[in-house]
Prior knowledge:
The structure holds 2 protein chains of 2 kinds. Helix content of chain A is 50%, strand content 12%.
Amino acid sequence: MATETKTVELDGLDQFRENLDLKLQDKHNENLTTLNLGPTHPATHGIFQNILQMDGEKIVDAVPTIGYIHRAFEKIAERRPFYQITPLTDRMNYCSSPINNMGYHMTVEKLLGIEIPKRAQYIRVIMMELARISDHLICNSILGVDSGAFTGFLYVMQEREHIYDIYEEVCGARLTTNMGRIGGMERDLSPKALYLIGEFLKRFPKVWAEFEKMLTRNRIFVDRTTDVGAISAERALSYGFTGPNLRAAGVDYDVRVMNPYSSYEDFDFEIPVGSKGDTYDRFLVRNAEVWESLKIIEQAYKNLPEGSYHADAPHYYLPPKQEVYRNMEALIYHFKIVMGEIDAPVGEVYHSVEGGNGELGFYLISDGGRTPYRLHFRRPCFIYYQAYTEMIKGGQLADAILTLSSLNVIAGELDA
Amino acid sequence: MELTNENVLGKIIEQFGEENITDAVNPDGIMTFQTNRQTIHELIKYLRDDEKLQISFLTTMCGIHYPEQKDRELCMMYQLHSLRHNYRLRIKVYFPISDPVMPTLTDLYATANWMEREAYDFYGIVFAGHPNLIRILNVEDMEYHPMLRQYPLEDQTREDKVNTFFGR
């Protein structure tokens, strides 16, 4: 067991300082200023540090540092039974936690070979699309705030509260939503939840149309965002961009269409694409995606199939609490699942879902034990943020803030 | 040419030889095979540049530690995706922990930069030729690589918590 690690002839701290010194050598040039943006700066919406080299208002160079809220999820996951990993996934992209949950559950289902019923898949689709809407509306309205328009943010924030009301009705929690189970949903959609979704579908389009009207043709907003933080399709692909940020650059890659999961192939929707890959394009793509998400929810809501909301997999599906009180088998399985006594088969799977930000992937290796041997998260924010330096170089400081908020980098997902 | 696992594997073996491409399996529909450190850079470059394959999206990469496997303790997993043909591919390279050196892919993919830093941070894998190989998520003055399996999750000096029943 005791393996020797080789001492690596590379002192991180020294190298970091050295790199920084190289970058900051121009400091002797009296015109350049070093500006420490972050780690906690109100304009960065999260904990990232950026050491900027400024020539007046122009950014000459930037050194980004991350890891301020690193919580070692991949390490923790190696020590936890499969069910107990779900709460970790909530806390990655906390703006759209249901997508993280469902993605993880689908990965485990793939490993276990569980086929889940259509009704559960449709409920999942509704929840995931609601999460995408809440993610996009936060991103776009904050982009408005960063360019000086506060009203829109307050206006759509209320709609996010309504989405959270739906979550609350479905699972009891508003932010850290543990609504899924391995093998389906925790419970069926209640009549109240269905009513709330119906109401949301009626009311939300008006609100979103108004928000869209406020910014899309707004002279100040358009001037502030056009050609800001642009990235070409080639560079975006080389950086591994996915999701709205890649589609804004003109590549129509969407996991929901390319590798459909959870019966996305049943729904009719389009993939909005931009052309220039600048901040304004990213705003437009997200705006359009909200409309597409609404279309999907409407279809799933209207055609919600009858049937069970979970698969018949008693070894893995946590039984409903009422059953546990009445039924001996349910009690036994409940105990075994909660205590993590149930082994998974040996295997290796990769499953990805279209998260609010792009391809959210889960790579899982199981050695036949009750915990994963290795669980790796492919986190889209981690990938976007390394392109940030390149995207803000040559621009102004105020533009850098807009670029960051249009990339929608969520600190929880960046650091995991 | 339709990209199927057999087709692609045949093409890769034709190019790089059977001694370099081994142990092809298909665990979840994604073809997985092993290669070695000498081949990996050329292989990924070939997959990216070949006109028929166009496997040019480096989806993810990560390190894995198998302490029981003698001289194959560490593993780097690369997963690639062809956006044109919607074809996925997984490549693994095993190497001894006493010599944890891999070639860098930063000259092929910009995204490899931070992913390699992450693998270095967690597993101590040194990527030869990387422009800025420093820790990324952990503090700079950490003296070990925390994802190696000899390091337990909890602080072993604590006595107020018994962890026997939760998670082996």
